Amino acid sequence: MERVIGVMGGSGVYEIEGLEEARWQSVETPWGAPSDAVLTGVLSGVRMAFLPRHGRGHVHGPSSVNYRANIDALKQLDVTDLVSVSAVGSFREEMAPGDFVIVDQFIDRTFAREKSFFTSGCVAHVSVAHPVCDRLSDIAFEAARGTGVSVHRGGTYLAMEGPQFSSVAESRMYRDWGCDVIGMTNMPEAKLAREAEICYASVAMVTDYDSWHPGHGAVEITDILATLRANTANAKALVAALPGLLGATHAPCPHGCDRALEHAIMTAPEKRDPALVSKLSTVAGRVLKG
Ligand SMILES: CSC[C@H]1O[C@H](OP(=O)(O)O)[C@H](O)[C@@H]1O
Ligand SMILES: Nc1ncnc2[nH]cnc12
């Protein structure tokens, strides 16, 4: 099938450059309004859809981003492969500010967000044992390497609710748990992408050492913004490299991301809530039809 690359732009990444046929498209969803309109266009012959996670001008905080609407909107635009770009704090000396980490695991400590498309009336259970797409993550890694930035393949991302940063005690505890980086947004986004059968990869840009590091003060937003500004060019170069590396055809995902719902829906057809089934037509239409 035709590949459409989605890019979820995090803090500091509010647009992408160089798109042909570029236009900001408003998308309505049954889950409410997405964070902003979606910038669509073509890059190196591949269709692209860019959504600034917090909206242009950074309007939505991590707890108020409508993650379901964002994923539904991208699915409506036929996104097959979604690359998230995010700012993170680091729990590892060697994952230094300025480095990129291709995240491969999550610990979800968020608690004030809608985490599933499937509620009472149409229950489904997908696997997120491997919450990112390994194929897409490989490509994101290649794209990051091509920019010359120091990049780490693999890392566990602690998703916290925020918007306040962690205390020193929390920071030390997450580090002891084996987490590598911390942020506020990749959950439930990655879970919802899996429910919507979209391949998902997370590129984390390290902006700080959170608050555990004895040689660095507690994380401050001013330091984060300075590091982000310095990294914007690398993030843009990484995104620009994706279509050339991925190509215009999405072959079936070897890890099954694009078939995650195949045996996931538990609710008997006659017991399904027609109103919810209708809301699910974009993300689950493939398996709910017929
Ligand atoms: C600007 S620091 C805190 C903010 O930045 C990260 O957002 P994103 O993942 O969209 O780059 C972090 O998760 C917080 O929401
Ligand atoms: N230290 C940190 N904690 C949570 N989110 C972040 N985003 C960037 N740095 C962060």
Automatic annotation (TrEMBL):
One of the GO biological process terms: purine ribonucleoside salvage
Subunit structure: Homohexamer. Dimer of a homotrimer.
EC number: 2.4.2.28
CDD domains: MTAP_SsMTAPII_like_MTIP
DNA damage among keywords: no
Family indicated by similarity: Belongs to the PNP/MTAP phosphorylase family. MTAP subfamily.
GO CC, one annotated term: cytosol
Nucleoside phosphorylase domain: residues covered: 5-241
Pathway the protein takes part in: Amino-acid biosynthesis; L-methionine biosynthesis via salvage pathway; S-methyl-5-thio-alpha-D-ribose 1-phosphate from S-methyl-5'-thioadenosine (phosphorylase route): step 1/1
Protein's organism: Celeribacter indicus
Binding locations of phosphate: 11, 53-54, 86-87, 185
Protein name: S-methyl-5'-thioadenosine phosphorylase
Molecular function in Gene Ontology: S-methyl-5-thioadenosine phosphorylase activity
